[in-house]
Design goal:
By secondary structure, this protein is an alpha+beta fold. Among the domains are: 159 residues, Arp2/3 complex 21 kDa subunit ARPC3 (Orthogonal Bundle); 110 residues, Beta-Lactamase; 41 residues; 112 residues, Beta-Lactamase, CATH 3.30.450; 99 residues, Beta-Lactamase (2-Layer Sandwich), CATH 3.30.450; 164 residues, Histidine kinase-like ATPase, C-terminal domain (Heat Shock Protein 90, 2-Layer Sandwich); 121 residues, Rossmann fold. It has 36 helices and 37 strands. A six-stranded antiparallel beta sheet has the order 11-10-15-14-13-12. A hairpin with a 4-residue loop joins strand 16 and strand 17. Helix 5 runs antiparallel to helix 6, helix 7 crosses helix 8 and helix 24 crosses helix 32. The N and C termini lie far apart (146 Å).
Length: 1190
C-alpha cells in the first residue's frame, strides 16, 4: 500500500528504521493497567509500515517492536501474536481488499483470541479468568492500535495530499474511534484506580490486624511478666523451700507456662516446677550459667523476653522464656524463668487474625523463628523470604515482590507478592512479629471483574463497527450518486442534454446539489456565448485592428511631443523607438534617426559606459532601476542631470527581450537643491538658534544652533510647537502675534526658552514675518542671554553685599564706639565700688548693696562685650580646642536650653583636628543656635541634632557664608545645629543676622549678630540652610589650627624682681587718660597698691611729665583713645625717650584690636576696661615682676 512518488518511496530503509524505533518506543512507553498488564502501542507503527511500505516492512517492524515484550513479559507469545496479526491483516488488506479495521477484527475473532487463550492458559498455565482477561486485553489493544494507525495514515494523506483516502473510510474510522478510545481510556483509568483502592484496602486490613495481634500478644506476655515479677518480689524475702509451692501453684494455674524455675545469682536452680523431670531426676541444683541472656538481665534488672534457646532438662526442643530478676536492696540476687508454651502463642495469633490468608512469623532478636504459620519456615531457623525487593510504604508497611527465574513470566511476581508489616514485641523489643497479606486473592477477584468489563467493551465495539459500517455506507451513497450525475458533465451539456438533480433531505447534500446546478447553468450560458462569439469573430477583429491603429497614432504623437526621454532598447542595447526629446538632446532632427543606433554612437564614451553597465545589470539580474540620477550632456556639450527609470521587458516565455526606459531632465531641480543645501548649511553654522513656525504654532524648520541650545534632535523639534519652547508664547496669543507681524513685519522682545532637560534659558528674540506663496511663517532668531543675565545678577549681588557690608560696618563702628565709652563709665563705677568694698569692714550693712551693684556692673560689661563681639572686636581667649570634646563636656548645659518634648541628639565626630578658638565664645554661639532651634520647634515636639565634622571646602561652597570676608579654600572643622522646626523664608534668612532683628516677642535681636561677630573674629564662616515647614540647619566653620612650635623665652639672668628687698624706694606710676573720672579712679587704685602717682589728661602732657620725671617713673598706665595724640603715638614717643619704661595699656576695645595696632612694638601689657582692683594688681605684678601690696 505504499503511495506513489512519496518521500518514503524514495527512502524506504530510513523510514523502515524510523518506524521500527517508533514501535520499540511505543512498547517501552506503555500505560500499565495492572502490574505487568500494560497497554502497548508498538503494533500501531507496524500497521503504519504495512500501509506505507508494504507487507514485509510491516512484519519487520512488528518483529522489532514485539521483541521488547520478551524483556517485559519474559515469554514469546505476545511477539508471535503481533507478527501473526500483521501477516493476516496485511494479507486480507492487500489480497482480499478488505478494510484494515475490519480485517483486524476478523483476525482477533477467528484466530487471535483463541490463540492467545491457548498460549496463556495451556502454555503458561494461567487460570482461566486470567487467560480470558489477557486475550480480551490483547484484542482491544490490537484493535485500538489499528484504529490509531488508520487515523494517523489518514491525517498524513490529507496533510501531504499525495495519497487518496475514501470519505467512507474516514467516517467509518471516526465513528469507531468515538466508541473505542473513550471506552479504553475509562477502562484504563478505572482499572488503575481500582487496583490502588484494592491495594489500599489490603494495607488498611493488614494494619488493623497487626494492631489487634500486637495488643493480644502484648497482653498475653504482660500477664506472664506480672506473674513472674510478683514471684520475684516474694523470692527476695522468702526462702527457696517456701517458693517451691508458689511456683507449682503458678505453673498449674497458667497453661501458658510449661516450667517455672527460681535461680540464684550463679544461675543454679534453687526451686523448680516441676521438681523432677520426666525421667525422675531432680531439677534442683542444675546450672544454667551458659544462657546468653543472663548478662543483659543482670544489666537491665527488669523483666524481659529471652531469645530462642534449646531445652536441657527433658529434651533439646526450642524454648523461649520470660525472665524476671530477683532484686535484694536493688542488687541482682537471681532470677525467675518461665518457659512459655509455644502452642499457646499459635492459638493467640490464629484467634487475633480475621483472614486465614494472612501469614505470621514471630522472631527473636537474632531473627530466629519462634512460631509461624508459613509452611516454608521452621522453628529455630533463620527467617528468609528468598530473593526479591522489599519496598517501604510507611507506617511499618512494606511491599514484598519476589524475584522469579527468567523463564517464568513477570506476571507471576505480582501474583506471589505480598504486603508486610513488622511489629516489635517486648519491653525492649526483644521479639519481632511479621504479618504478610498475599496480593493474589484480591488481585484474582479484581482480574475476574475486569475480564467481564473487557468482554463488554469488546461486544460494544463490535456492535459499533456494524453500526459504523451501515452509517458510512449511507453517507457515502450520496457522494456516489453525485459522482454519477457529474460524470462527463461538460460533454453532456455541450450536446444539450438535460441533467435531472434529485432532491435529498440532507441539508449539506441539498446545498451541494444546488451548487452543481449553478455550475451547470453557468457552463450552459458560457457554451452559448462562445458559440455566439465565434459567429461575430471577423467583425470584432476588424474593429480591434482600427482601435490598434488609432492607439499607434496616439503613441507616435506622444513620442514626438513629450518632454521626457522615452525609449525602448533590444537585447543589444540598440534603440527600437524613442521620443523626439531624445533625438533633440543628441542633436538629431527626427527620433526615427536613432532607431538601430547604440549609446556609444550618441554619447561620450564615459556616459555611454555608465548607461551600458546599468542595462547589463538589468539583463543579468532581471531587476528594475528607479529614480537613478545620471549625468548627460546637451548637443553643445554642457553637463546636465537626468532621473532615469528602467525595467526589463519579458516575452511570453519569460525571457528578457529588451529594456523600456523613461528619463527626465532634473538639472534645474539639482541646482535649486544645491542652493538650498548651501543656505541650510549656512544657517546651521550660525550659533544662534533659528526656528520657523506656521500659523498653528508648529515648528516647520530649525537650524543646528536651535538643536544644540535646546538639547533636541531635529526630528524632535519638528514634532513640537513653539509654545513648548518659547515660554512667552501661548496657543491663545500666537494668532494675535501673527496678525500683528503681518503689519509690523518684525518684532524684538526678551523671553525664556525651555530645554529638553527642563532648564530655562533667557534669550533675546528677533521675530520676522515671512510669506512664501500661499504659506506664511514667523522666523525667530534668538540669542542666549545667560551670560549677560548672570553678570547682571552678580553685579546686583555684589551691590547688595557691599551695601550690607557698609551697614554692618557702620553698626559695628557705632557699637564699638558705644561699647568703648560704656566701658569707660563702667570702669569708674566698678573701680569705685571695688575701692569702697575694700574700705568697708566685713560686717558693714551696706556691703551687700555694693556687691549687688558690682554684679550688675559685671553684667553690663558682658552686654558691652556682646556689642564688641558684634563689631568683631571682642576679647578672645584663644587656645587649641577639640570642638567635639568641648560640646561633649558642656552637654548638660546645652540640653538645659532645649524645651520639654523636643528630642536632642548629637553626632560628634571622633578625632577632630584642633582649632584655635575661644571656648567661651564658641559655646555662646552654640547655645544661641540651640536655643533658637528649640524656639523654632515650639511645643509641638521635634528633633534637634548637634553634629561636628571636618571636610575640604572649595571657594564655591565658602561663597555661601554669611560673613562678607572671603575665606581660602581648604580643610575646616564644622559644628552644625539642625532642627525640623518651622524654618525660614528667603526674606527672614536675609535679615537673620541683622542687629536688633528678631522673630521672638521678647528677643533683643543681638544673639545672631553677636554670633556673626564672634565667627568673624575667629576667621570662620556661618552657613545657613532653611526651608519653611521643613527646618533649619546652621553650620559654623573654623579653620584648622596650625601645628604648634616651641616658644623661646629670653633668660632674665639671676635677677628676680620678686626677691628684691622691700626697703627700696616706693614705685611711681604715670596715669594717662582723657577721662577725668577714669584717671582719678586709676590713681586711687594705684595709691591703694602703694604707688606714688602722676597724671596727665592727654598725650602731650604725659610726654612733658615723663621727660621731667623720667628717673622715678616705674610704670605708665596709658589709655588707647585720646584726643590730639592717641595711645599708639604716645607709646612710640615713650619708647624713644626710655626703651626700658614699662607701659600698661588700658582700653575699652578688645586685646585683639590693640594687638593688631601694637604689633611688633613690644607692649608690656594690656588690661581690658572695665577692670577691678584685683585684675589691675595682677596685671601690674606681671608687668613689673614684683609683688604689689594692697
Amino acid at each position: 500500500m505504499a503511495s506513489d512518488g512519496s518521500d518514503h518511496g524514495r527512502y524506504p530503509i530510513v523510514h523502515l528504521l524510523a518506524l521500527s524505533l517508533a514501535g520499540l518506543a511505543g512498547n517501552y512507553f506503555n500505560i500499565p493497567l495492572f502490574p505487568n498488564l500494560e497497554v502497548l502501542f508498538g503494533s500501531t507503527f507496524s500497521m503504519l509500515a504495512l500501509q506505507l511500505l508494504g507487507l514485509w516492512s510491516g512484519v519487520a517492524v512488528a518483529l522489532t517492536a514485539g521483541s521488547y515484550t520478551l524483556l517485559l513479559w519474559q515469554h514469546p507469545y505476545a511477539l508471535l501474536i503481533l507478527v501473526l496479526e500483521t501477516l493476516v491483516v496485511g494479507w486480507l488488506v492487500l489480497r482480499r481488499q478488505m478494510g484494515m479495521l475490519l480485517a483486524d477484527t476478523v483476525f482477533w475473532l477467528t484466530l487471535g483470541m483463541p490463540l492467545a487463550y491457548l498460549c496463556y492458559h495451556h502454555g503458561m498455565h494461567f487460570p482461566s479468568p486470567e487467560a480470558t482477561l489477557v486475550f480480551m486485553k490483547l484484542a482491544l489493544n490490537g484493535l485500538a492500535n489499528v484504529l490509531l494507525a488508520r487515523l494517523l495514515f489518514t491525517a498524513y494523506a490529507i496533510g501531504t495530499r499525495r495519497i487518496s483516502v475514501s470519505f467512507r473510510d474516514i467516517i467509518y474510522e471516526l465513528l469507531a474511534s468515538f466508541v473505542l478510545f473513550p471506552s479504553l481510556i475509562v477502562l484504563v483509568l478505572s482499572g488503575r484506580a481500582d487496583f490502588r483502592a484494592s491495594a489500599a484496602t489490603i494495607q488498611e486490613t493488614l494494619r488493623r490486624d497487626a494492631h489487634r495481634v500486637s495488643l493480644n500478644l502484648d497482653h498475653w506476655l504482660k500477664v506472664r511478666k506480672e506473674t513472674l515479677s510478683h514471684l520475684a518480689r516474694l523470692a527476695a524475702t522468702l526462702p527457696p523451700e517456701e517458693m517451691q509451692a508458689r511456683l507449682d501453684q503458678a505453673r498449674l494455674s497458667d497453661y501458658s507456662f510449661q516450667r517455672i524455675g527460681l535461680l540464684n545469682r550463679e544461675a543454679v536452680t534453687t526451686a523448680y516446677s516441676p521438681v523432677s523431670d520426666p525421667f525422675g531426676q531432680s531439677n534442683l541444683g542444675k546450672s544454667f550459667a551458659d544462657r546468653p541472656f543472663l548478662p543483659q538481665l543482670r544489666q537491665r534488672k527488669e523483666p524481659m523476653l529471652s531469645e530462642l534457646v534449646r531445652g536441657t532438662i527433658d529434651s533439646s526442643t526450642p524454648r523461649v522464656l520470660i525472665l524476671a530478676p530477683v532484686l535484694v536492696q536493688g542488687e541482682y540476687a537471681g532470677h525467675l524463668a518461665g518457659v512459655l508454651n509455644l502452642d499457646r502463642a499459635h492459638q493467640i495469633l490464629d484467634q487475633a487474625l480475621d483472614s486465614p490468608q494472612i501469614r505470621y512469623t514471630l522472631l527473636d532478636r537474632h531473627g530466629m523463628v519462634i512460631v509461624s504459620n508459613r509452611g516454608d519456615q521452621e522453628v529455630m531457623s533463620r527467617f528468609e523470604r528468598g530473593p526479591g525487593n522489599l519496598t517501604p510504604l510507611g507506617n511499618q508497611l512494606a511491599w514484598w515482590v519476589p524475584k522469579v527465574p527468567g523463564t517464568v513470566p513477570a506476571w507471576q511476581r505480582w501474583k506471589r507478592s505480598a504486603y508486610t508489616v513488622e511489629i516489635p514485641v517486648g519491653s525492649f523489643s526483644e521479639w519481632r512479629l511479621i504479618l504478610e497479606q498475599p496480593l493474589l486473592p484480591s488481585l484474582s477477584e479484581l482480574l475476574a471483574r475486569y475480564a467481564g468489563k473487557f468482554a463488554l467493551i469488546l461486544a460494544i465495539f463490535l456492535a459499533a463497527l456494524v453500526l459504523a459500517e451501515l452509517l458510512s455506507r449511507l453517507f457515502h451513497s450520496r457522494f456516489l450518486e453525485l459522482t454519477r450525475l457529474t460524470a462527463d458533465l461538460p460533454a453532456r451539456l455541450a450536446e444539450g442534454q438535460q441533467i435531472s438533480w434529485p432532491d435529498r433531505p440532507v441539508l449539506e447534500v441539498r446545498q451541494l446539489m444546488g451548487n452543481f446546478q449553478q455550475v451547470t447553468a453557468s457552463l450552459t450560458a458560457q457554451i452559448q456565448q462562445t458559440r455566439a462569439l465565434n459567429e461575430t469573430l471577423e467583425q470584432r477583429v476588424s474593429e480591434r485592428t482600427a482601435e490598434l491603429s488609432e492607439l499607434n497614432r496616439d503613441f507616435v504623437n506622444f513620442l514626438e511631443n513629450t518632454s521626457d526621454f522615452v525609449y525602448y532598447k533590444d537585447r543589444d542595447s540598440r534603440y527600437r523607438f524613442c521620443s523626439q526629446a531624445v533625438a533633440v538632446s543628441t542633436g538629431h532632427a527626427r527620433w526615427r534617426d536613432l532607431v538601430g543606433k547604440h549609446d556609444s554612437e550618441l554619447f561620450p564614451a564615459e556616459l555611454a559606459r555608465i548607461y551600458l553597465d546599468e542595462e547589463a545589470q538589468i539583463f543579468r539580474d532581471g531587476v528594475s532601476l528607479f529614480n537613478k540620477i545620471n549625468p548627460t550632456c546637451d548637443p553643445q556639450g554642457k553637463r546636465r542631470w537626468i532621473s532615469t527609470n528602467k525595467w526589463p521587458v519579458f516575452d511570453a516565455a519569460g525571457q528578457i527581450v529588451g529594456i523600456f526606459g523613461i528619463s527626465r531632465d532634473i538639472t534645474e531641480r539639482i541646482e535649486i537643491e544645491e542652493s538650498l543645501r548651501l543656505a541650510q548649511q549656512s544657517l546651521n553654522q550660525v550659533p544662534d538658534p533659528i526656528m520657523w513656525a506656521d500659523p498653528c504654532g508648529r515648528i516647520v524648520d530649525c537650524n543646528a544652533g536651535a538643536c544644540q541650545m535646546l538639547g533636541y534632535d531635529q526630528y524632535e523639534l519638528l514634532d513640537s510647537t513653539i509654545f513648548e519652547i518659547d515660554q512667552s508664547t501661548t496657543r491663545e496669543n500666537w494668532p494675535l502675534l501673527f496678525s500683528e507681524l503681518r503689519t509690523l513685519r518684525n518684532r524684538h522682545y526678551e523671553s525664556s526658552y525651555c530645554t529638553r532637560d527642563g532648564r530655562s534659558i533667557p534669550v533675546d528674540v528677533q521675530l520676522a514675518y515671512i510669506s512664501f506663496g500661499d504659506k506664511e511663517f514667523l522666523c525667530g532668531v534668538a540669542r542666549d542671554l545667560s551670560d549677560r543675565k548672570a553678570m547682571e545678577e552678580e553685579r546686583l549681588r555684589l551691590e547688595r553685599q557691599a551695601l550690607h557690608v557698609q551697614k554692618l560696618e557702620s553698626l559695628g563702628v557705632l557699637s564699638g564706639g558705644i561699647a568703648h565709652d560704656f566701658n569707660n563709665l563702667l570702669q569708674v563705677v566698678l573701680g569705685n565700688l571695688d575701692l569702697g568694698l575694700m574700705a568697708l569692714p566685713e560686717d558693714a550693712r551696706v556691703r551687700r548693696n555694693l556687691e549687688q551693684a558690682v554684679i550688675a556692673t559685671v553684667r553690663a560689661s558682658e552686654l558691652s562685650g556682646m556689642m564688641l563681639a558684634y563689631s568683631g572686636k571682642g576679647v578672645l581667649s584663644v587656645k587649641r580646642l577639640d570642638l567635639s570634646e568641648l560640646i561633649r563636656e558642656n552637654g548638660p548645659m546645652l540640653t538645659a536650653v532645649v524645651s520639654r518634648g523636643i528630642t536632642f541628639t548629637s553626632a560628634l565626630a571622633p578625632d577632630l583636628p584642633p582649632v584655635q578658638a575661644d571656648a567661651t565664645q564658641v559655646l555662646q554661639v552654640v547655645l544661641n543656635l540651640v536655643r533658637n532651634a528649640s524656639e523654632a520647634i515650639g511645643s509641638g515636639g521635634g528633633t534637634i541634632t548637634l553634629g561636628t565634622g571636618s571636610q575640604e571646602f572649595d571657594r564655591e561652597s565658602l561663597a555661601a557664608s554669611r560673613i562678607e570676608e572671603k575665606l581660602p579654600a581648604g580643610p575646616y572643622v564644622w559644628i552644625e545645629v539642625r532642627d525640623n522646626g518651622c524654618g525660614m523664608d528667603e526674606a527672614t534668612q536675609y535679615r537673620s543676622f541683622d542687629p536688633f532683628f528678631t522673630t521672638k516677642f521678647t528677643g533683643r535681636g543681638l544673639g545672631m549678630s553677636a554670633a556673626l561677630g564672634i565667627m568673624r573674629a575667629h576667621k570662620g564662616a556661618i552657613m545657613l540652610e532653611s526651608t519653611p515647614g521643613v527646618g533649619t540647619a546652621m553650620r559654623l566653620l573654623f579653620p584648622i589650627a596650625p601645628q604648634p612650635y616651641p616658644v623661646r623665652r629670653e633668660s632674665t639672668g639671676n635677677k628676680d624682681p620678686l626677691t628684691e628687698s622691700a626697703d627700696r624706694r616706693p614705685l611711681t606710676a604715670l596715669v594717662v587718660d582723657d577721662e577725668e573720672m577714669v584717671r582719678t579712679l586709676s590713681e586711687s587704685m594705684l595709691q591703694a597698691f602703694g604707688f606714688l602717682t602722676l597724671s596727665a589728661s592727654d598725650g602731650e602732657a604725659a610726654l612733658e611729665i615723663f621727660r621731667r620725671e623720667r628717673q622715678r617713673i616705674d610704670l605708665v598706665l596709658l589709655d588707647q583713645n585720646m584726643p590730639t595724640m592717641d595711645g599708639l603715638s604716645v607709646f612710640k614717643e615713650l619708647r624713644q625717650l626710655s626703651p626700658e619704661v614699662k607701659v600698661l595699656l588700658a582700653s575699652g576695645y578688645s586685646q585683639k584690636e590693640v594687638a593688631a595696632r601694637f604689633q611688633g612694638l613690644d607692649l608690656n601689657g594690656f588690661i581690658q576696661k572695665p577692670f577691678n582692683v584685683r585684675h589691675l594688681r595682677d596685671e601690674i605684678q606681671r608687668v613689673l615682676w614684683r609683688e604689689v601690696t594692697g
